[in-house]
Amino acid sequence: MTPTDSDERKVRVTSATKTERSATGDQTKATAETAKASIWRQPVAVWAIAFACTVSFMGIGLVDPILPAISRELDATPSETMLLFTSYLFITGIVMLFASWVSSRLGVKKTLLLGLALIVVFAAAAGLSGGVVEIIGFRAGWGIGNALFIATALAAIVGAASGGSRQAIVLYEASLGIGLAVGPLLGGALGELSWRGPFFGTAALMAIALLAILVVFRSPAPAAGAAAPAKVSLLASFRALRNPALLTLSLTAFFYNVAFFVLLAYSPYPIESAAAQAGMTFGAHELGLVFFGWGLAVALTSVLAAPLLTRRLGLRPVLFTMLGLLAVAEAVLAIGIDSATVLIVTVIVAGLFLGVLNTALTEAVMEATDLPRNVASGTYSGVRFIGGAIAPAVAGPLAAAITPSAPYWLGVAALVVAIAILAAAGRTLRHLGRPHETAIAEAADIGQGDA
């Protein structure tokens, strides 16, 4: 072969390689653009579920601005009124452990509709109540419906959304954040008219969500020749906790939610007290605005910051960082208990950390095991909601017996335990600790979807 022939061959090989790389780059770029856009290009059924999720999560923060008003008008102590959170969250957590068993027998659509119907009935009944004990009981019934709906909705969105599981989780957490933001705002606005207003408002919105699911949602048809979906065991969630990764993440979320609901359920009381000491008028409307800002912060970081941070840093580093920052925020709340400005600003800033944590933990659970989605999500959600139920039950008595800042120090302690659990499970969650190599690699992974 002559030197000229060799040179020509090198030129041809180099040219072909460049062409191939260019084509691959164009294809990867197209995949990235598709993945990026797919979160907004979802089937109508996915948007219907997302809307219902938003309204469902509104129910968590809905009563926040009216807690002091309920205490005054129904002659109840703060400890008694905060049980509105405890009964709701505890029953939600317990029922979630069996939600996958229910949905495997009724089907996804019927389970979603049953959950929504129960919320409509018990939310309306709470609005008609004559005493705080009745409301606590109806909030427990509300929690049954909430559990059936939320546990099934997460699995349904992940299974039906385009763009893969990460996109679906971001959409789900966005619904959570928007619901947490709008809930206090609506609760504050309607609470200015009457403490009953927020309950009736939720019942009406949930009725609309029920109709939307009824009309547009279609359960996925089984593939030709495919076997019928296996029935889930009644004890599936308890057996799922034998999985070390799921157990670790569930316990981490358990203690994290203690801190979460100390902030959410207890904060209206010290804020109102500090504002009164400063000569400020702080009613349901003003509290609603504060927690609207908090919920908006949760929504923004769950959608915008969490995917970016987990892609660049990895899930475990993000979890450690955000748990630590939230612990600092709760310590600031404890130290600044007498300053309305410190409390308001810190509550809203804490929402930034909570949004990232919610998305990162949910993504970790969906990726950590090969368990069925409905079992994994129901088990994880059940354990974390039980953790959330503990906080309102102990925050009031703790504040009365020790000092108003004590509940926040409880939140700090719970977050330290959560960090310790996460650190002790280094090997178990090792595969979650690696950042994705590049944004393009992340997009390509998303574009492959979730089988």
Beta-strand segment tally? 0
Please give the CATH class.
Answer: Mainly Alpha
Radius of gyration: 24 Å
Q: Give the helices and strands as they follow along the chain.
A: HHHHHHHHHHHHHHHHH
Unreliable sequence segments: 15-37, 436-451
The computed structural class is mainly alpha
- CA-CA gap between termini: 51 Å
Strand content: under 5%
Pfam family, one: MFS_1
InterPro entries: MFS, MFS_dom, MFS_trans_sf, Tet-R_TetA/multi-R_MdtG-like, YfmO-like
Protein name: ACDE family multidrug resistance protein
Main location: membrane
Explain how this protein is built.
The chain has one domain: Growth Hormone, Chain: A (Up-down Bundle). It is built from 17 helices and no strands. The protein has helices at residues 3-38, 44-61, 67-73, 78-106, 108-127, 132-160, 165-191, 197-216, 236-240, 244-266, 268-277, 284-313, 315-335, 340-368, 373-401, 406-424, 439-447. It is globular and about 60 Å long. The termini are far apart. 57% of the residues are buried.
Output the keywords.
MFS; transmembrane; globular; Growth Hormone, Chain: A; mainly alpha
SSE layout and pairings?
Elements: H1 3-38, H2 44-61, H3 67-73, H4 78-106, H5 108-127, H6 132-160, H7 165-191, H8 197-216, H9 236-240, H10 244-266, H11 268-277, H12 284-313, H13 315-335, H14 340-368, H15 373-401, H16 406-424, H17 439-447
